[in-house]
Amino acid sequence: MFEVDNQPPPLEPYNLFTSDVCLREAVKREQAGWAEDGLATLGATLGKPETVKLGFDANNYPPVLHTLDRYGHRLDEVEFHPAWHELMAIALRAGLHASPWAEPKAGAHVARAAGTYMLTQAESGVYCPIAMTYGSVPTLRQAPEIAKQWLPKIFSREYDRRFRPLAQKTSALVGMGMTENQGGSDLRTNTTRAEPAGDGSFRLTGHKWFLSAPMCDAFLVLAQSPKGLSCFLLPRWTPDAKRNALHILRLKDKLGNRSNASSEVEFDGAYAQLIGEEGRGIPIILEMGNYTRLDCAIGSSGLMRQAVAQAIHHARYRTAFQKKLIDQPLMSNVLADLALESEAATALLMRLARAYDESDEAALIYRRVVTPAAKFWICKRTPFVTFEAMEVLGGSGYIEESIMPRLYREAPVNSIWEGSGNVMCLDVLRAIARTANAADVLHAELDGSGDQRLKGFAGRLTERLGAPERNDEAQARALTRDLVLALQAALLIKHAPASVADAFCAARLGGDSGAFGLLPRGIDLRAMIERAGAA
Ligand SMILES: Cc1cc2nc3c(=O)[nH]c(=O)nc-3n(C[C@H](O)[C@H](O)[C@H](O)COP(=O)(O)OP(=O)(O)OC[C@H]3O[C@@H](n4cnc5c(N)ncnc54)[C@H](O)[C@@H]3O)c2cc1C
Q: Which residue is closest in CA terms to ligand 1's atom 43?
């Protein structure tokens, strides 16, 4: 029998919060210092070997659809492994699905962002219903009577896995159904019909091509009513406690996100209630979309963080050619560059989350413009980071038992759903064009540091933002990328150690390098790696 040698110990148990310097600094900086104790408790829970195993189990035993019972009656139920439910219970206990609404205070969205950033590192599938429930609250509030009935259950931290009418449950979760077979980006093509039932409610007939987390208690959906495309709340149970006519046709066989169920559904005269003004469905449901887009940026940043933490951990222990990998000069360049991308993403998302805690004009403009921009660029970078981090582990990184394949498979989804890359960039153009003081607010974010490297880049960007051709759709990705890079550079110059800011300005403001590990000479790589390590 061969000896097992030169293998790192697993990165567990560890505290995902206290070991994450960038996250801890950002939490304090963005006004959520009061949440540190709670985040440290959550970080410890998520880093326990038992919790890590839950993430693996939830993926190894994916959800199963039961359409009919043995007699042929409709069930439309999805069965999850107990690990999924345990992870959901952890997330709800921490308030990640609703705490900023249930207990509003300065820094509440920032604190919750830090929590979900850690949750997604343990397992991303559960993030989907958590994100949708969080995002549903402002939209539900546009129908005060319905909100009165649903919000107390949505605010509850006691996860209730049972498939029961709302009145019988301790808590409730909300999903969303917008995408139809013939179009997801262009929601005006939705064909699902909503007929008034005569009692104030509607009956929906049609389908949704994607409806994730179908065991949520209700869904915000779009449908064509007599006055146009409108937003509805469609519960899984009717008011007389019967199963609503939402039929789950099949579960999607997905690349990643496998612990979570994503379904195709048909509505066969399903009971639903109007939310907000009839005919204004798209802006009403996109209120929810802002929050879920923020969550895409958070989720992808969390994936990057987990990949980088695993890579640095491995490199600390593994020896090749008589040296630890972390001490090999070329590997230290790769690790530092990965850490740089992760820190830039974390700094930006936490700054963005603060804009959701504030309500002045600058904050509203910042959210409107930077949410789609951050979603675009952070989510686009994640597959590259997870791939490169996987390679740090060599062959073992390609094996399922390391978490790396799971992170890699998960990486593209946040870029595609809730508005794919191009749609986000076009939204950035629209937001800048329609928001009177957008250029001034962005300029203020990029100003003040006096750093010459950023000054030149930001100056050229400001010119482009003011030029008539800024609406050139074919250039929308370039503009959005440069906006995000400038915002990230400004944050790192202001708040990160000089080694990090220097590296970012040198490697990211000078053009796309195409791979990681191309940082130029003269940067303190070791300091960057030490800062990003998880132990
Ligand atoms: C795992 C998963 C879960 C999902 N869960 C849900 C859910 O719960 N609820 C829900 O409603 N949806 C869900 N979706 C659907 C998702 O939101 C859509 O797939 C997405 O919005 C894109 O829509 P589409 O698939 O119809 O692509 P299309 O709209 O056909 O777009 C295809 C491509 O064209 C690009 N494009 C579109 N318009 C333009 C343009 N004007 N200029 C340039 N490029 C353009 C897009 O960026 C995209 O890259 C989920 C998707 C996935 C993968």
A: 422
